[in-house]
Structures are given as C-alpha cells and as structure tokens.
Amino acid sequence: MGTFEGNKLKIVSPLNPGSEHKYETILKSTLHLFTMWLISDINPLAPKWLCQGIAGYEVKQMPDEFIKNSTSEQIHNLVIPTFQ
Q: What's the pTM?
C-alpha cells in the first residue's frame, strides 16, 4: 500500500484504494509507514522489529490481547530480542 524513500512517503490513493483495501486501511498503513519513517529518521540503526512493532502498536493494528498472548511467554522466560 505504500513505502517511504528518503523524504518521500508514497501511498496508494485513499480515494481510489482498489478492490483489496478501504479508505481506513490505507490511512492506517500510511500512519504505520510514517511512524517507521520517524523512527528511522531518529535512529537509522533501529532494528526492523522495533520499527514495525512500534508502528503497529501506534496504529492499533494488533489488539492488546494479541500482544499479550504473543509476547507474555517470551517475556516471562526472558527471551527478549537484543538490538544486535
């Protein structure tokens, strides 16, 4: 639905999203990309998992219950990704 390159954010038109998407999904995707862009602008060395995770959280693409269920066991077992 979109990408960012340098200082340009490129997205599918929310007014003409095609058959696969809706206006709302295009806007969520755009906010997701914008969040990733900001993170990479602040710290170009930030790992992809951190950029994607924060962007997904900000856009509320993952319900709180999904986040809890998909991370609690790893956190409990101290299996937390490193920045390397």
A: 0.71
Six token digits for residue 65? 């219950």
- Tallying the residues shown for the chain, one arrives at 84
Query: Distance from CA of residue 58 to its chain's centroid?
Result: 8
18 three-class SS = coil
Q: Which residues contact 58 (CB under 8 A, 6 or more apart)?
A: 31, 32, 35
Rounded Cα–Cα distance for residues 25 and 60 (Å): 12
Percentage helix, strand, coil for the chain under 3-state DSSP, each rounded to 5: 55, 10, 35
- The pLDDT tens digits for 16-34 are 878 888 888 888 888 999 9
